[in-house]
Design brief:
By secondary structure, this protein is α+β, with helices and mostly antiparallel strands. The chain has two domains: 113 residues, Outer Surface Protein A, domain 3 (Alpha-Beta Complex); 70 residues. 25% of the residues lie in helices and 29% in strands. The strands form two sheets. Strands 1-2-3-4-5-6-7 form a seven-stranded antiparallel beta sheet, with no helix packed on it. Strands 8-9-10-11 form a four-stranded antiparallel beta sheet, with no helix packed on it. Strand 10 and strand 11 form a beta hairpin. Helix 1 runs antiparallel to helix 2, helix 1 runs parallel beside helix 3 and helix 2 runs antiparallel to helix 3.
C-alpha cells in the first residue's frame, strides 16, 4: 500500500499456491481475502465477517448481517439446470478489488499511485461422472480453538520481541509477523471453512487469529 503496509502475499509453488490480501493497517495483519489454486476462496468484510465463500462446487455471497444474498454452482460440476453466475465485483478497500466472472476467471486487482497489478486466481476443476471430491479433513471445536490460541500466543511473543528490539515503537509497529505465523493463521481459517462448526465459533476463531 502507499502507506508501506503489505497488501498482497503470495505463498506456495508453481503447482499449488495461495494469495492473501491484508488490510491496510499498521498494527494488525487482518486478512481481507484468501484465494487458493485448488478452488477454495473466501473474502471478508472489514469487521471479519464472511463476505464471499467459494469452493470447487460453487459459492455464496453474504450481506453484512450474515444473510445469504446469492448462491451458485459452477456449470461444469452441476448437471442440473442452475441459475448462471452474474458477474460479481467487490472492493475490499480503496486499492484492492475482486471480480468474479467464472470459476477460472477470478481476478484480484491492486491499484495504487498509478500502478496496477492483476492476478487471476481462478481454476477449473474437472470431475468425471460418478466421482466425488474427497471430503476435507475436519477437526473438533476444541482442537480448532486450541490451534487458534496457539497462533495468537505466538503472535504476541513476536510482538514482544519487536518491543524489546525497538523500544521506541516507531519501527516495530511497521514490522510484519514471520511468514510461518501468517501461513498458520491462513491454515486455521481453511480448517474452519471445512469444519462442521457453528457460525459463532467460526467468527470467534477468525477474531482470535486476526486480532
Amino acid at each position: 500500500y502507499p502507506s508501506g503496509n503489505v497488501a498482497i502475499i503470495m505463498t506456495g509453488d508453481k503447482d499449488q499456491h495461495s494469495l492473501i490480501v491484508q488490510e491496510d493497517e499498521l498494527r494488525t495483519t487482518k486478512i481481507r481475502a484468501l484465494f487458493q489454486s485448488d478452488g477454495r476462496s473466501t473474502c471478508y468484510y472489514r469487521n471479519g465477517d464472511e463476505w464471499i465463500n467459494m469452493s470447487t462446487q460453487g459459492g455464496q455471497y453474504l450481506d453484512q448481517a450474515g444473510n445469504r444474498v446469492r448462491r451458485w454452482m459452477w456449470p461444469n460440476l452441476s448437471p442440473e439446470p442452475h441459475v448462471p453466475l452474474s458477474p460479481i465485483f467487490i472492493s475490499l478497500n480503496r486499492h484492492v478489488g475482486v471480480r468474479i466472472l467464472a470459476q477460472d476467471k477470478i481476478f484480484v486487482s491492486f491499484l495504487a499511485m498509478g500502478q496496477q497489478a492483476k492476478f487471476n486466481m481462478g481454476t477449473r476443476v474437472q470431475v468425471s461422472a460418478g466421482s466425488q471430491l474427497p471430503p476435507a479433513a475436519q477437526l473438533g471445536e476444541d482442537e480448532l480453538l486450541l490451534l487458534a490460541f496457539r497462533v495468537r500466543i505466538l503472535q504476541l511473543f513476536d510482538r514482544m520481541r519487536g518491543c524489546l528490539n525497538f523500544p521506541s515503537g516507531e519501527q516495530w509497529n511497521k514490522m510484519q509477523p514471520p511468514m510461518y505465523l501468517i501461513n498458520q493463521a491462513v491454515k486455521i481459517l481453511e480448517l474452519c471453512m471445512a469444519a462442521d462448526i457453528s457460525d459463532e465459533l467460526r467468527s470467534s476463531i477468525k477474531a482470535i487469529v486476526n486480532a
